[in-house]
Amino acid sequence: MTVTYIGVRHHSPACSRLVAATIEAIRPAHVLIEGPADLNHRLDELLLGHRLPIAVYTYYRDDERVHGSWTPFCDYSPEWVALTVGRSVGAEVRFIDLPAWHPAFADRRNRYADADHRYRAVTERLCREFAVDNVDTLWDHLVEAVPDDELAERLTTYFDLVRGETVAGEDDRAREEYMASWVRAAGGPVVVVTGGFHTPAIRALAVGKGPWPEVPQPPADAVGGSYLVPYSHKRLDAFTGYQSGMPSPEYYQRLWEDGVGGAADAMVEEVVVRLRKRRQLVSTADLIAARTLTSGLARLRGHEFPSRTDVLDGLVSALVHDDLPQPPPWSTRGTLAPGTHPAIVEMVAAFSGERLGRLHAATPLPPLVADVTAELERLGLDGEGPVTLDLTAELARSRTLHRLRVLGVPGFERRSGPSSGADPVLDEQWQLTPDDGRLPALIEAAGHGATLASCAASMLRSQIPQAGIADLATLLFDGALCGIDMEVTAALADGIATAGELDALGHVLATVLGLWRHDRIFGTAGSPAFEPLIAAAVDRSLWIMEGVRGGPAPAEPARLRAVVATRDALRHAGSVLDISRSTALDVVARIAANADAPPDLRGAACGFGWSLDAEVDAVGALAGVSGPRIVGDWLAGLFAVARDRVLSDDRVIAVLDDVVSGMSEEDFLIALPALRQGFSFFPPAERETVARMVVDLGGGSARSLLRAEVDPLVVARGMALEATVDRVLAEQGLL
Amino acid sequence: MSKDLQRPPAELRYADELAALRAEDTDPRPPGWALSLAAARRFIVGDDRGVSRKFVGDPSLVDRALVTLATSRGLMLVGEPGTAKSLLSELIAAAVSGESTLTIQGGAATTEDQIKYSWNYALLVAEGPTPRSLVPAPMLRGMAEGKLVRFEEITRCPLEVQDCMLSLLSERVLAIPELTGPDGMVFAQAGFNVIATANTRDRGVNEMSAALKRRFNFETVFPIGSYDTELGLVEREAARLLEQSGVAVAPRRDVLEVLVTAFRDLRDQPERLSTVMSTAEAVSVAHAVGLRGWYLRGEAGTAADIVECLAGTAAKDNADDLARLRRYLEQQAPRRHGEQWQALHAARHLLPG
């Protein structure tokens, strides 16, 4: 028995060429490929004639865990090439890895994600040695950008070195044992195509002869399955997501089709076309410079044709005539950071490409389609026309419709319903319209999950990293409407921790706090998932609040709402916060005392402390801000946050009465608009209480104070006119 | 003689390494270069065989910079202050030309004289304009000798002074109208090019013209991405400076950790300080902390010293920065764990004002 091992990097064109050449030369009896063994009887389905990239989506649910993962294939995947070339030379082709539902894959969303982060110590040393930025560049330098001579030996040396003496984790060991058992069973010439990190271990384990192994069966009580879905280059791109494949799939597609030199030329052209379409100036001189730099870099780095990063480096040096706000993603090996230079965004997009996969018409429909059809029928939502739902009784129907809405399936439109967690609306209006676009939308969406619930969940979660702070509240509320636990990802907390706008932050905090405190209909009350968000938002709000500066300016209601939300969080969710009550009270005390802070914020900060029973001398503070240009705005802040305190302590109104009585006619007119805005924070009944307090001070009837027969604006205008007349008379010496 | 210099230029500091690299350099060299591109890169990013690592940024940045200098465009290094732009330009000049002292320091007072040439007026009066009475400035020397010229802080120069670079860079010839005959035209020799540095914080002071921008390739130098690398660098540099200043104890690791973390936090915040929290600034704070500790109390320096030094170095005289710093100490420091963080929080009252 002769076994030829080819250790590959997933999504590597050079490895694919080696695989094709080896299989054609050996014409083996068996081709064994790292891939889900439970799919072996369905290989024909894969080979129907799809347009790649496609992926096998596997879902799994039991009592303990829910898991969904992809096994993506593109034209230049070594696994795909092994499958197709193996078939064409008449070999028996088999997938030999554990099924995707197996616990060994519990932490993985993509079977062919790179494993190199587990071998960082070695790869970092190699990068230093070859003076390259990261392991992607290293790979291009060692494999993709150089001729294929002795590629097999080079790959073996590389992976042996990288794997070295490292002991594999338990998950990897289970997989390697299993793959080795297939190799032991195969007779005749065999070609084994597996990830290069596994190859050294499999070679060591596959000694002797054995029977064909069993394909593990999922536990009887588990639900799961695998089906084909269309995939896209965008999802394959490591610059756009976690656990993708190699970066820049379009580049490697071109490399696979036209070779290294052809790929470089094609990508330069693509980038220039994109930039010019965006009306960016790309002159011929710039192109010459880019060309010179690219070939210079290739020569310095010892490449016959420019490699991927030679092209990118040359383009960025020659075409960008500014400083970059963020390092280019190909040097840091991360996803695109917010604020990346627009030219770099275009370059990365060009290298990623827009290619979309399409399934052959004969491919079995994904289970999502059946799931949705059955669910709509069961809930009586398969008709058309308006539907009214009572949320207390028909939550399941509402959730189904919301899930379809967030998936972008056409024909489900929400006309009305609650707009936040604290909104006391209890019914919803929907309009259903049949639409031919539903089936394609569902097939497209099936790549996110097998059931409507899991699909909507993964769709919503995938939006979190790109969401701006203003969209977060919407996303979280959508999650509640769909009945989905929005796990708090690091991206979400990061978004909050770097938010710059107090207004938007206050909106998010109020939404989250509303869902966390009140929402019994949607079942989100007290959900621990929201707690880190509340904590992060309170931290950030206090941080921004203390930095706001500004002189007299009209009170900003959005800003005051943020202060209220922060106060509410401290009052009702104190136990989940990172920041201690005393630290928070210190912060607001400093704001209240800071003469550079805008008056509405100072008033709100004063009310913040007062409403939390801190020792605050609101009366004294009011006396300190009695100038006509600030007193109204200061009061607006105070009333927005602590109007109950004002009502229960008549001294504030008493001092205010003194302040207003002491104002000259002109000062009063200046202060009036802000005072009116301030008092608008009191609902009518409370306004009457305030009026009664004023009456107790001076006499008269509270009701008559509130029910003026003339519009107060007319009165104010009349007063202004009288003042003008008085002034003119005085000037002319007639008074 | 170099022993008593406060800071010898790179070609003296690393003379041994340069000599060794030159001796074993067999790769083709661009015309006029003292080293091949590959050897120059090794000089800057280091290798494991006796060449030290002098610049900790991305190797690809160094590649791009070197290749740019071998073309007909100049190299413009941009970035926040304190990101080692000047160090990089010095190292490149030392590697490529063997000399890093052809330097023009840009500023509001920079004139064309300091860039091109001026005259020895005594000789000028005695002999008239002759090559003998000409006093060459860095650009003239760089062009005549085929060497790299460093132009530091180019955006601090008035626009008309920046513009005098235009024809030099595109025509590669410097005319001296006062001289006649062949002396009147100095053609650039192979090996001549310009490395300019500009600071993103000075943007808008003297915005470069599009014509000048076009003659440069821009390379942005970023702050150090990895915490460990930055901590290592601060520790190494601070220890070296302290030793020079006669301090007998090395800085405490846990104090440096607090310092570097605080700098990174303040640097990454969306609302930035107007002072740049660069690695260079962190090194100087670490140096000051060590000095205070040793000369005031005979120990290595504490978190409280950090607060005292931050007020002077980081906040300078900017009231807003001081307020941000105070906010950081009040709100963020208490949430970190560790003895030194508590000490930092407790020392917040040491900030002035």
TrEMBL record, chain A:
* One family name in Pfam for this protein: DUF5682
Q: What is this protein called?
A: Uncharacterized protein
Q: Which organism is it from?
A: Kutzneria buriramensis
TrEMBL record, chain B:
What is the official name of this protein in its record? MoxR-like ATPase
- List each copy of the AAA+ ATPase domain by range: 71-226
For this UniProt entry, the molecular function terms from Gene Ontology, in alphabetical order, are: ATP binding; ATP hydrolysis activity
What domain of life is recorded for the organism? Bacteria
Against Gene3D superfamilies, the record matches this protein to: P-loop containing nucleotide triphosphate hydrolases (3.40.50.300)
Q: Which SUPFAM superfamilies match?
A: P-loop containing nucleoside triphosphate hydrolases
